[in-house]
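Weekly puzzle thread! Below is a chain. First person to post its structure in token form gets bragging rights.
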Amino acid sequence: MLGILLGDLLANPHIDGNLLCHGLCSPAMLKKYITGQKKPEKLLGDALWQRAGKSMEKFEIFLEQDEYILAKERTKIQLLIRHGALSEAENAIQKYQTLKGGNSQLHIQFLCLQRAEIYRRNRESYQRQMKNLRSGMAQTLPDHILTTGTLHPHLLGTLELLLISRYAFLLEEQKPEKAALWYERLISYLTEPADSGISRDLADKRRLLPPLYYHQALRFTAIENKGAALYALNQGIKLLQELQGFEGMFIRMMELKIKLLQNFSNPVPQQEISCLEVLSQEMAEYHAANLENIYPDYPERNIFNVNNMLRERRIAYKITEENMADQMDCDLRTLKDIEKGKRMPQSRTKIKFFQIFNLSTWKYCGTVSTRTYSFYRKCTEIIKYNYERDHKKAWEIYQEIAKTLKTEDRINQQFLKYWNTVLSYSSGKTQKNQYRTDLLGILLETLPNQSIASGQCSLTRYERKILEDLAWDMDAKDSDGIGDMLYTQYSKFKEDESLGCLFPEYYMSLAYCCARFAMLKHDFEESERILEDALRQIRFLQNDFRLDCLHIQRFLLEINKLKAQGQLPASNNRKNFRWIRYAYAISKLYRPDTIITTNIEKYLIKYWKDTKEILNCL
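Winning reply:
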């Protein structure tokens, strides 16, 4: 699917295919990727797509063993750095270079980015840091980019932009005026459409721009240009509120903004000051070690191991190895080698495997299967309008997409069934019982049952969505057999931290649902363990999407525990209410969400007849 969509983007006469592949592959090879004759290696596919201005986060990516091992090792290296285990991270980098494919140009570029962060934290010499950054950029970029400082008309991928940004940050140590010019060039490159007509996806802007705006604001502050500094801070803060992934950077930018305003005797809303104080308290309680993690690393999401999936699905379906080999038209030894990762399945064998289990056959699988990129934006709009409860608008977009999708493709079938079910329920056309029955029916098309064996499977996009939806509001008496599957999925993620990085939103949703389910069964100790683990882990995943929900659940757990013990205080004990204050401040300032803040206020008024004392200046 990636090649087809690249072809759609290259139909734009302003996009130069030679610039797109420069330093990455030949134009002839690019043509083979577009026509499907060849499939690009993961980092190469990333780079081509990102140079076209698009984010890889739209795709689920199905990799064979060798590529998957490299992807998992990249995740491990970044996790070690986030945890501050810098010596272990350096050892992991050296190991990575010995793996098959781990020493090619884009992989060297990735490793140089990781060493940039290690060297920064270790306060290595300016010369050593600069040499590493130049080595990384030289893998795919022409020399004149640094000598002339000209980014246009070049097309740049995320790795390249992250390295150039680090180059600019480092220049600040010895050449601050030159660094300021680079901030301006990079911000202009990311925010203004190029002559090619390429405009970068918002996901990449949210990730790349905030550190640039922060450093630009520091430079403007140093030369006492208050207005320009505040403008840069406001731009970065807005993007961080949308991204929900770097609370440490958000706090730094807000502190600088408030300091600037106060220094020039400008009024600062007390609510902003109070919410920021609460956010700082929350960071100190749960995420103090994460204050160093202010810069984005290389994002890799939604990655699957085809070899593992074959074994997991075969076991879930209770198919013997002999029967599976017969169905896939291969001998038993070949099947065993594929499942163990000793052998890569041929394309014909792989396609057969996906078809047997009713899965999409694409290596890069999007929300829908289409030859037109614009459909992805429409799919995102359905989620947005459904969350905002504008069900009429969500239905209109869904029906517009449904008219043109080819229904023979498995991913399109899942999209149509899933969203028809969700929108029918959210708009009040179906009742809860029918909604759950319909969701289970869709899930049974790709998984044989809701069991521990099914829970061991790596779940695809709509399987994860359905499990989340079913678990989100289930009660202790009506779990529909989802409980075992839910806990098995959660345990799988707990055993392998890198899985949480590959599927951060899903992992936090699992934690929320498992904690809630345990609380409903009055297993308060288990619920507390899950929530505390999640609240301490979430920042290392660079994804704060469920942060306020986790704090709300932590508050409800404490209240239910005290209630069960007959100790629920009549007065507003500040210690017991800190989690609801965290959630409120997060939803008020960090990731503004009036739906959540309104629900918190209604809850406190209903049960405590109060919001002022509990929320106190928030």
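Puzzle host: Confirmed. Bonus trivia for everyone else. The chain has a mean pLDDT of 87.
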